[in-house]
Amino acid sequence: MSPEQDGRAGRRRGAALEHAIFAAVVDQLETVGYAGLTMEGVAVAARTGKAALYRRWPSKADLVVDALDHALPAPEETPDLGNVRDDLLEHLRQKTAVLNSSVGRAVQSLLAEIHRDRPLVRLVQERVFAARENIFREILDRGTARGEIRPGAISPLVAEIGPAMLVRRFLGGPGPVEDAYLVEVVDALIMPLVRRP
Question: Residue 169 contacts by C-beta under 8 Å, 6 or more apart in sequence?
Fold first, then answer.
């Protein structure tokens, strides 16, 4: 009997199952959106039972948030290439690689749908985006400690420029975000504002 004939034979377990579940969530967000995503559809795609999903995730929102948190670069993965310019650029490149992938399209689809669902927006912000918002500031602070950035140059507004420009281009621009755009953001906007003379 084949795995297709016997659901139990084809089921995954442990990390492989979790990966399959999260991949199914991203795929459904990209193809049918948050409204069309169902626990049953995820379970079928991941070759598991709906009960297994509900044991770990009490709601669709919890599952989606965990899947996105897993798919995005971890907050502790801060680049350290030895200078602030390269670190900023590498961080933007890491974020862009995700945004230009199926994960980015899933995030775009989700954000387009849930803007009126305040509890879900808050959940996504708190559990997915908030932990990753300080990475740019950490890189700039490290550059200050190394003497690359002039004292007093960093403010919350300055720390938001790079990520804000990337999100603006991602949500509003045609096609994928290009590397040349990231280089221009770092070299033409951020570094002139913070570099020590």
Answer: 177, 181
